[in-house]
Amino acid sequence: MRLVHWIDGLSEKLASLVSWALLLNALLITFNAISRKVFSVAWSSAFDMQWHFFAVVVFITAAYALQKNEHVRVDVFANRIGERGLAWIDLFGIFFVLLPVCAGMIWLSGPKFWEALVAGHTRATRESSSAIPAWIILSFIPFGFALLSLQAVAEAVRCIAFLQGNDTGSRASRRFFDGE
């Protein structure tokens, strides 16, 4: 369970750090809007940085959302199957849906990140003259899915411990008894 607590702590620390990035993004959006509307100066890199910040928030906080049971789910039979059934459903979802999707996304996005890093690609296109290196945002795709995988492993360990009779506060138990 020490590993589970370490993974939980990592998710929480990164989510806290990202919350400060949201403040920086709000300031950046404000600066960008003022520079465009008041001074008629558009900075394409500032616009790109806005969605970069948002993308980083999504990729980094996905693991935190899973840990806090704040992700989207549909529980049609939740009230009928009990907490052990919910733990089994969580385990099934983690091992047969979440972890394979995360592995696939890491496998697919890793080479794109590496290619952008080695070739020095930027975000510049016909529509944008942004000089922001593309590898920066591309690095958060495999990193975010790796974090989500780690948190999924922690949740699977919690479910297994719960099914073995150790009340570890599994997501299934919390969800069932909190009336979610």
TrEMBL record:
It is a multi-pass membrane protein. It holds the Pfam family DctQ. One of its GO terms (cellular component) is plasma membrane. Coiled coil: none annotated. GO terms for molecular function: transmembrane transporter activity. The chain crosses the membrane at residues 14-34, 49-66, 87-110, 130-150. It is found in: Cell inner membrane. Residues 26-160 form the Tripartite ATP-independent periplasmic transporters DctQ component domain. Keywords: Cell inner membrane, Cell membrane, Membrane, Transmembrane, Transmembrane helix, Transport. It comes from the Bacteria. Belongs to the TRAP transporter small permease family. The complex comprises the extracytoplasmic solute receptor protein and the two transmembrane proteins. PANTHER family: 2,3-DIKETO-L-GULONATE TRAP TRANSPORTER SMALL PERMEASE PROTEIN YIAM (PTHR35011), SLL1102 PROTEIN (PTHR35011:SF4). Part of the tripartite ATP-independent periplasmic (TRAP) transport system. This is TRAP transporter small permease protein. It comes from Phreatobacter oligotrophus. The lineage of its organism: Bacteria, Pseudomonadati, Pseudomonadota, Alphaproteobacteria, Hyphomicrobiales.
